[in-house]
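Table S2 (continued). Query chain:
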Amino acid sequence: MAEVSESKVAILAAGDNPLAKSQLSCMNNIPPLIAPLPRDQVAIDADHLNLLSIFHFVGAGLACLGILFLMAHFAAMHFVFTNQALWQDQKQAPPPAAFFKIFIWFYLAMGLWLLASAVLNVLSGVFLRMRKFRTFSFVVAGINCVHIPIGTVLGIFTIVVLTRDSVRELYEATR
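Corresponding output:
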């Protein structure tokens, strides 16, 4: 039995429809796909790791800016809650002192969180440049995912890049 090519079967299936036959005959004239350009994966991985390192330093800087904002907010709230002259002509009494103490604990917790985040991001940026302590950078990437939205993007991209086999080989080569 003679073999029939798929294009001949399609033309036969098109029947007497001239439009279908012309479309099918055009499909046979598609040029072959061009081979992709060769990629130097080591250079690409090195570029990605250097970019991630820079963005970890930026994340640390943003955490420091967050600490400055927190300090300014604390100063403003301290001024409002402790200044008796502001509450003198008001219909309501000032909030109790315990209310501001709750804010102090919040400021301390957030300040410590931002400080730890800044230090961890600086260390991770240095370690990414040195191609050492890959697991540490994974942990910092997970912590960064909590810092919505910029930290989340940085954390996910860090995890994606560090899970590549070629990046793992880069880290093993520097041991």
